[in-house]
Amino acid sequence: MTAETGPFHFAPGGPITVDDLEAMPDDGNRYELIDGTLYVSPAPGTRHQKVQLKLAIALDMVCPPDLHVLTAPYAVRASRSTELQPDVLVARDEDLTDKLLPVAPLLAVEVFSPSSVLNDMNNKRAAYQRLGVQSYWVIDPEELSLTVYELDAMGVYSRVASVKGGEAFEAERPFPVRVVPRELLGTLAK
Predict the structure, then answer these.
(1) Which residues are CB-neighbours of 26 under 8 A, at least 6 positions away?
(2) Does the UniProt entry include the keyword Hydrolase (predicted)?
């Protein structure tokens, strides 16, 4: 017997797997899996998209040739029960497949949407920490802020920077880059 949710089916009582994710509809929502639990996010808004695009461009302009900057939707599939789609990620060339990233990226970035703040700050941050993602950035496009977490010697995230508006963050990981939150909104920053 299966439980029906829209046009796809899940077996009751068991965790959801990446096989179930592949059966999800292409309906504009983002489907992610953390330890067998499904998280669904609606399509992001204008400020989110602008910040995601501008950050990806800024990173890509200074990205070393052995690394790549990619944007969602692009899967980080850590296991059969965990598949995440960071808004922006940086990965080693040798780690990428044609379809997904089967290991932790060097950098994962989440841009807040009203519906994603709690998930980004709790579930996803914990999942990225367990995966060993060296740097995790969260950007609030409403407050124009960037908060940076990096793994410490114990493998636990520590906040290493928090900047707002016109303040600059001079990143060293995964490579040197200067990020100013206000600049990520371009002409939308009024």
Answers:
(1) none
(2) yes
SS (H, E, C) 154-165: CCCEEEEEEEEC
How many distinct structural domains can be found in the chain?
1
Could you read off the pLDDT of 83-134 as tens digits, one per residue? 999 999 999 999 999 999 999 999 999 998 877 787 788 889 999 999 999 9
**127-173 pLDDT per residue, tens:** 999 999 999 999 999 999 999 999 999 999 999 999 999 999 999 99
Residue among 81, 66, 77, 80 at smallest CA distance from 101: 77
Would residue 37 count as lying in a domain? Answer: no
* Residue 4 in domain: no
Name the CA dihedral angle for 79, 124, 177, 73, rounded to a multiple of 10 degrees: 60
Look at residue 147 and tell me if it is in a domain.
yes
d(CA 77, CA 84): 7
32 lies in a domain? Answer: no
Structural domain for 136, as ranges = 44-188
Taking the CA atoms of 132, 44, 69 and 17 in sequence, report the sign of the dihedral they define: positive
The CATH number linked to 115 is 3.90.1570.10
